[in-house]
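Researcher: Next entry in the queue.
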Amino acid sequence: MKFEHFALNVPDVRAMSRWYVEHVGLQVIRNREDAPYTHFLGDDSGRVFIELYTNPSALIPDYGAQHPLVIHFAVFTTDAQADRQRLEKAGATFFVEDSAPDGTRLIMMRDPWGVALQLCQRAKPFPGF
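Model: Structure for this entry, 129 residues:
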């Protein structure tokens, strides 16, 4: 088996998808124009990693009320501070920054819908980055 995607039920999938495409550099791999407006987003490798949809038949969590350690998704960056500043200008909010002894920098933010987004500037990136 291989990981395919992680899914979130969100209040406005189309606006959220546009924000992640414009500001995080993701791309829409596949989407539906009818309810529940499912959008599969991926990175520049073309691999899907998140599915967003708006389906009122299930609870849409209050992501902003949950601590980011409960649920978050992370993106690799080579300049976490510059990306933090850029994303704050686009409507994201800062939560906390952690640094590891090896020089790894982790900045936790929230997107405009309250979903936790972690910027990972690792001293030793995972393979493929």
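Model: The CA atoms of residues 80 and 121 lie 6 Å apart.
Researcher: Noted, moving on.
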